[in-house]
Amino acid sequence: MTPAIVRRALPGWGTTYGPPGDGPFPAVMILHGSEGAWSGWSHRHAVMLAAHGFLAFPLGFSVGGNAWNAGQIIEVPLERTVAALQALRGFAFTGQGVGLYGASRGAEHALLVASLMARDGIEGLPDSLAAHAPPDVVCGGFDARTFRDSGDPGWQAWDGAQRAWSWQGSSEGLLPTTPIEIERYDGPLFLSHGTADTLWSVAMTRRLEARLKRHGRTPEVIYMQGEGHILGGEAENDWYARLMTFFARTLMA
After folding, report:
1. Which of 157, 180, 203, 207 has its Cα between 20 and 30 A from that of 90?
2. How far is 77 from 103, CA to CA, in rounded Å?
3. Can you tell me whether residue 163 is helix, strand or coil?
4. Predicted confidence (pLDDT) per residue in 158-178, tens digit
5. What's the CATH architecture for 6-251?
6. Where are the chain's structural domains?
């Protein structure tokens, strides 16, 4: 029996999940949150996408860590993510469309990568982008050995000495509470957030939506009523359906 989902190595980067056969397939790169690369959440998303016809690549970007420790999100070089996106675009099994998805800190990561690539005129922008529970500002560095209080990073008193991201060798332009200029990205954009999220306030996505609309953008925005940072079963089923419909529409055309 042929497996419904097969693994393929993206040379130099890691594993992908996709349907059997030669493809090519619409591709999505997945960025994990503060749970780290070892937790399995991004691979779970990848398998779900693969089961519905996508080639999915979970990129691990957290610094250090292991199966018991999520590691850090400190001075993560965003240009490495750009290189990974370009590698996925050039993969033999990748079709014409390449999307980017991230949740929580991965959503922040995805929005930053797209906005910086657009700002600096870097080729290979994702053809569409989805972000679940995204912040609208740059957040501070994260160490899994600690845990930040719940709330809204728009007012969170981040430790200024700990910076999460760097771009082209510097973190100076990515200080905590700096607005993420996702309005620079003009591709299809899907945003989602649980309205009862106590870890990342839904106010962040509402601010993103308002700013995008002020700049003439038309994001697809889904608010999951009564849901927290991690969606419940029925809500997650509905969310997956919407997410995959979005990527099918924007990557398979």
Report:
1. 180
2. 18
3. strand
4. 555 689 999 999 999 999 999
5. 3-Layer(aba) Sandwich (3.40)
6. 6-251
